[in-house]
Amino acid sequence: MSKKRVAIYFFGALPLIMVSLVYQKLPELVPMQWQTGGGVRYGDKWELFMIAGLSLVMGVIVPILAKIDPKRKNYSKFSNVYESMVLLIEIFMAVIMGVVIMESLYPHRIPVTRVVSVSVGLLLVLLGNMLPKVKSNFFTGVKTPWALSSETVWNKTQRIGGKMFFLSGLLMAVGSLFVPMEIMSYVAVVLLSITLIVPTIMSYIWYQNEIKSLGK
Asked: Which of 105, 138, 149, 203 is surrounded by the most beta carbons within 10 Å?
């Protein structure tokens, strides 16, 4: 088993370990969702086990998805990137769980909405760097019907998707440090929408151009 696979299992289990270690100290109600206006939605502390379990499920299911994907042969071409993306998301989930635990035990010690927004931005930046290396598959990357129908279109879509992820993440991370969160929440929605829409539209255009060039 590779070191990276071991890391995937470790960080997959880490949120559960974190919750288990502090469970008795947690209040019965813990913060689950923060609103930009300052409101907080609370939930029973046992719900943290369900949320933490998602990371572990992700770590376990990763190798299974690669084996059942109809395009599983392509995974050998980007297996390192695939595992790096999973590990990165698991680390992000562990950070968020740490924020929840910190706020539950020591309320108002950290600016939660800014920390989470910056973390999301950095996650997008790092994923954006990895996207161009992802080969055609049904579970990872910017998947559109046109990208999945052409390897050339797929590669172009991942490249532009990577650029959009990187730029949006950078703007979100930097903006979250300086822009009021009431405004930043709307900015984030716009950035994420553009990040998804642009690669989708371009993949359609590239596919149509490819069809025309082939005389179909």
From this structure: 203
What is the identity of the amino acid at 117? S
| Chosen domain end from 91, 107, 123 | 107
Of residues 179 and 1, more confidence is placed in 179
Range of the domain at 154: 111-216
**Number of domains the chain contains:** 2
Q: Which residue has the tokens 């706020």?
A: 103
Instruction: Decide: helix, strand or coil at residue 44.
Output: strand
pTM of the model: 0.90
- Which tokens in the block code for residue 152? 């050339």
Query: What is the distance between the alpha carbons of residues 154 and 24, in angstroms, rounded to a whole number?
Result: 49
Cα–Cα dist 36/51, whole Å: 22
pLDDT tens, position by position, 57-100: 988 898 899 999 999 999 999 999 999 999 999 999 999 999 99
Composition of the chain by helix, strand, coil, percent to 5: 75, 5, 20
145 Cβ contact list (under 8 Å, min separation 6): none
Give the DSSP H or E segment for 173.
helix 151-178
99 vs 103: CA distance, rounded Å: 6
